[in-house]
Amino acid sequence: MKRNFYRIFSYIILSLFSLFAIYPVLNVFSISLRPGDKLLTKSLAIIPENWTFDSYINLFVKEPFLLWLMNSLIVSIAVTIFAVALASTAGYAFSRYKFRGRDSAMIGLIATQMFPVTMLLLPLFVMLIKIGAYDSYLGLIIAYSATALPFVIWQMKGYYDTIPFSLEEAAYIDGAGQVFTFYKIILPLALPALAITALFSFMTAWSEYLVAAVLLQDQTLYTLPIGLKSFTSNMDVAWGLYSAGAIVVSLPVVVLFIALSRWLISGLTLGSVKG
Amino acid sequence: MYDNRLAYLYTMPAVLVMALFIVYPFIYNVVISFSNMNLSHFRNWDYVGFKNYLLVIFSDDFWYYLFKTILWTVLNLVAHVGIGVFLALLLHEDIKGKTFFRTLLILPWAVPQYITALTWRGMFNSEYGSINLLLGHFFGIQVPWLSTEWGAFTACLITNIWLGFPFMMIIALGGLQSIPANLYEAADIDGASRFQKFRNITLPLLKPVMVPAITLGVIWTFNNFNVIWLVSNGGEPSDKTHILVSWVYEAGLNYFRMGYAAAFSMIIFIILLMFSWRFIRHTRATESVY
What we know:
The complex is a heterodimer.
Chain A: H1 2-32, H2 54-61, H3 65-96, H4 102-112, H5 117-131, H6 137-161, H7 166-173, H8 178-189, H9 191-206, H10 210-215, H11 224-231, H12 235-259, H13 261-270
Chain B: H1 4-33, H2 51-57, H3 60-92, H4 98-110, H5 113-123, H6 130-139, H7 149-177, H8 181-189, H9 194-222, H10 225-231, H11 244-254, H12 258-282
Helix pairs in contact in B: 1-12, 2-12, 3-7, 3-9, 4-7, 5-7, 5-10, 7-9, 11-12
């Protein structure tokens, strides 16, 4: 009897919070289906009357959404490759080698997490004005990689720490070199952590608004976040466009995130918050 | 047996990138913070010593926004940890549809933050936003969310609670899974109640997992620019809805008071560094395994 009571209570609470979690998503979806003349409605229906895919079609046909998508893809993929390459090697060195400056570098990595975003953005902004180097992807790609790196290096290091050193010793005894051992034995074992690093750095670049808003003035270089934000300045006419865009932009990362969430959980608990 | 040259080779690319885009801007920020750089002294700036730091500390803005930032951080963390641990406890029980609930509940974490913020801003629209429509439908009330100081603050708070609780839930779930089941079995034999088991087994063993997560949570929330800025549309109404970091942005990049903003950034950094110093010293990040 008591056990049943707990069970029903659990289901009610879980359902309520699930509703809380999913409602904003349903709301955006609902707005994205509204016909243009019914954007401002007081109806609460999830599937609106006379629903239509017009907003999605207009997004791709009439708005420069495809351009923003391409821009964001270029930047995000470059950041992912960059961050995975740099973090997988640096994390390995921090995990396995003792070298001068190692401890202070690790503390420095944590300290960067405490920087307010303006700490780097303001000097970067001043520097770029002085040298007149606005509007380039390269700046954006390196800035994103640099901000993502401390966290992913830390988390790669945490994962390498869980791989026993005896594996390397065995390889060395068999005559394998250090570089060979790292690439052929350790790196494949660190695949879950690499997946998290890739996901994290991709999402950093895919979802970053502020740095892009400061660095990019040329409209043809806009990434998705700035583009979608521009719709919201006149919500009356562009609410549907914004909502359709939000769905298209979120869908792939949400699916990826949930698919990888099993790895994510082990990666997070092992890496950054090792008890 | 350790080839140190290889260690430097492995770390060098990452260190170079970070030196150029983290260390160099950081040093430049320190330089600006001691200067009178602003719109009228952009190229011909001078050193003014600690003037900017004193200006920040003796301004009412600073103490007002510091108060709001602390309130913001505390309320968020209480909600994140409270909801997160509570849901983790429910999910850890043997119930049907566990994966289904977990997938729905981590959804807020998966959605890009700026989309969350812009979407909630739309939902808080006083006339057509679904929150006022729901409130009107069920309780017959209308709340002027975005046009009043504390309404906008509450709107930001609700948005941030929505996006932040899944992280704590997942961390707590990982912590719960690592507690050995035989501890509970032993407690059952001793006839311990549900609450006693929670108080004496779950809580103490969950703590070491939650403390680092909470420290990170405090740092992230204290500096959470996106939600405040995008939900309140840059501090509306009339620059009231700010936390420290969004106010610095406004001062530095919209009003171009660079020296003042740079000193302000340093002060935020020092506050957080002092807060988390114990955590940094005790973290195992600097320990090597061998």
